[in-house]
Amino acid sequence: MEVYVGVDWAARECVCAVTDGSHEPRPLFDRLHPSVDAARRMLEQARAAVGAAQTDTVRVVIEAGAPGWVHILHTACAVVHVVDAKQARRFAESRSSSGAKDDRRDAVSLANMCRSEQHRPPPFKPDSAEIQQLVTLAAAHESHTKDFGRTRQRIREQLRQTMPLVDQALPTDLETKWAVRLLRVAPTPWHAKQLTREAFDDIARRASKSFRDRMWDALQKCDAPWIDEGIATSLATVLRHHLDQLELLQRQLGRDRPPRRPGDPFDDRAERRLLDGGDPPVDVCGADRVRVP
After folding, report:
1. What's the CA gap between 231 and 285, in Å, rounded?
2. Low-confidence residues in the chain, pLDDT < 70
3. pTM, entire model
């Protein structure tokens, strides 16, 4: 004998309905809470509700979108079938459901779907631990990449509003260290007016001379007299916050090389860059306190 259970999930609890396949499903009184022990008790209750033996198979249909619930039910030894939400909705509509959201009615509809071999999808099979790790890391990388793009857009938007010529002259990807350092020192037109050519050349020494000349010209043409020191301080705080996020996301995405530790393999390109006078660390915390001479 097989027992068929429909599970309508929410973040903290689920509503379940059960049938033996020959009778209409009926909701279980107790709601399912997110633990394997609670899932095992629910399966025992479902078997008892239809008079099945405790060794009989319990099939469960649940809508996609709740991998935690799926793993809990699978670990509790249920045969889990994960169904697409649109497919579940169409099935409910085909049985003359009113369409109004009701947890118990949805669970009953899923239980009916579960007992129909024609409509239930193949059983869920968990990926190997290695595949799950790769999926988790890939999802995190994709999320960080999107956050990186959004943060870069926020920086660009602020620059377009306050220093459009500087925005145009900066590297497209904003991943150049000297460009980030320049924006920390001169985040607004007011700060740009305090910057000397000598200090600028020191910041942008890794850039070509033609690029430095073009950027310096853009800085000199910044003209926003309505931005006084108070407004500039507020704008600088916002932009530096975005720059902090940008650099953090760069590290998370592995775009920055971590510091070399004793015993690490020698990286010719990275080490040569440091020996040639790579970018020194920036005093981010003191950026607001230090006036460029």
Report:
1. 19
2. 96-100, 255-293
3. 0.63
